[in-house]
Protein: AB hydrolase-1 domain-containing protein
Amino acid sequence: MAFHSISGRSVAYRLLGSVVNPLIVLAHPLGMTQAVWDDVIPALLPRYRVLTWDLPGHGASQAVGGERITPADLAAEVLALVERAGAERFHFAGTSIGGVVGQQLIAAHSERLLSATLTNTGAVIGTPDLWNTRAGRVRQEGLAAMAEEIVPRWFAPKAFEASPALKAGWCVQMGRGDDESYAQLCEMLGRDTFTGKLSGKSVPHKVRVQLFGGSEDMATPPATLESLAAEIDDAPLEIFDGIGHVPAVEAPALFAQSSSPCWQRTWAMWLTTAWHMPLVLRPASRYWARITWRARPPTPTVWMHPSSR
Structure:
């Protein structure tokens, strides 16, 4: 882990992989840390240089001083870290609030993006009342007290069955976060939306976008992703069956049964040079699921792991 001063605040980041590979930036969800990507990074490193970082007051990044946070502030952190990595253009992948950062990059810095993969996010997430209420509670009660209530919403029930320690681990991690930074980010989500800002008419440079969601996601259900897809000129959308709000944590467990490159095909391969090609992937080995990729799917495709059939 390394640190970089951005706007007078220390930001924790990791830069991994060969400098000859294209850069991909990964943005984590609210209340979590860049550790979310630990099981994804090995699949990306053969073809990407990987940059992850902690949001304000999360992980090892310094907390905010009470000032209002905007999506533009978070996008500026990304661009500062990309500059530090020596890259001009980059791929981006973000989950939840990380996907909101991606939307800001699409809206304001599309010329810098090679592609954007947005998961479990929306042009509008929740309501202002929901986020303002949570911000107020966090300031009064603290993240450590609220973690037991919030963390279970991140994962599908079967994720806790597969790993009983998962909930406790992320509760501990969330409790270490800065209350004010989290509250400011909540208020940002309630205040700033991207309705009408992401279509080809609004974005000067065309960005290749792929959307992912989870069928068990309570925070950003499939309908939220469908609305976002419509905002981005019917961007391709995949819904993973039986997965909650954080596929980067839940999905690796599904793929651990096989050494097939299925994981790369269902996540990392969306970021390869074959974006423009309509195709049907039939994963080999023990995987009989079919992944359908169309430029403008009429309905979201649902990916089902063989064990759930």
User: Anything to note?
Assistant: Residues 214 and 240 are 5 Å apart (CA to CA). The first strand starts at residue 2 and ends at 6.
